[in-house]
Design goal:
The longest helix is centred in the N-terminal third of the chain and has 17 residues. The relative contact order is 0.16. Helix 7 runs parallel beside helix 8. The chain is 25% helix and 28% strand. It contains ten helices and 23 strands. The two termini are 43 Å apart.
Amino acid sequence: MDNNEFDEENEYSNSEKIDKVKVLSNAFSITLAIVFSSVIIFSLYVVFKPLIVSTKEYGTTTLTEEQIARLDKVAKLISDNYLYDYDQDKIVDGAIEGMVNRLENKFSYYLYEDEYQEELNSGANSDYCGVGVHLSYTKDDDAIIVLGVMPDSPAEEVGVKAGDIIVQVEDTVVNIDTYVDAVDALKGEEGTSVHIKARRNGEILDFDLTRRHITENNVAAEVLDNNIGYIKIFAFDNGIYEQFRDEYVKLKAKGIKGLVVDLRNNPGGYLADTMYILNLLVPEVKDALKLVSKDKEESVFSTTSTNQIDIPLAVIVNENSASASEIFASVIRDANKGIVVGKKTFGKGVVQTEISLAGHGAIDIVSAQYFTPSGVVIQDNGIEPDIEVSLPEGVTNSNFIERDKDTQLQSAIANITK
């Protein structure tokens, strides 16, 4: 198969044509950007290629006559004997869900039609009405932690800060059973208000926020001491390439002497945008990423830019950095453009294809495995950092670390300034 080359100027304009194919999995952390009507729960994902396939394309079946007869027999037994009225489409939906579940693969699942449409709509754009925060559920506090506050947002205006623990939204007290409802309650019609209670340094603070139109920002950037640039990427999602590029250009214009890219707790995202960002940082790499399908067909992705970062670079990862984050870290290291600091990554190295069932939901199944330029199998193995650094024992929540306790960030800075 021909190489799939990503050129920053010539290719990115086509990226909006790429349909999304998400991979979801059970992980230890949750990344919840308050975006759209759906919340990514326990999710690690990467968007691979434009493939939304309808079952109408299939004219044959892989089931034997006996298997088909068995399914039909059960349907007829239910029809002839079940006492109450029922929805036959729901019966079929349940059968499909059962088939996928019996694959016993945590990355393969069935989406009901309403879930599928919600997912499609959630990625259609990066605009929504809300308060402008990046959130995660924290098991330690049984509440919601603010990972970041978007600039010029209602949350920023009233003084909500990264690290705040949201314990109540309106009348909903946050816990493991209610946090999804609490997150949903932060969204609403533009101009309406929402009240939250948040804990900061042991003190409960009350905030009244007025919801308004938000354009999601998945990056946070600043200049640290020693003139080191810092960019945190919450997820490789909606508009991330443009957001990263703009912040990177601004930092470079300020004359930064080094750059730290923080991918801790980043669950992944769009593969295309990940490659576009890498195109800003690494030289031409002919085999930046290799995907291998069930039939051993290979897709090799390359970067083509002659641009590359000309200052020291460090990438910080942890055990919840997954999928596209792992691709990013591995390409930076294998291209000899930077070091990887932190803890071994999650180990999400497979890609799923989402297949539409023509108005009856979709199935999402593992369809390929990807490999790093050096041939490392990421699946179940993760990426080992060049410099392994743990957080101090006193740090109980890796989603937010105070700077003076952030040994991983301190190590990254020390190793690119020596």
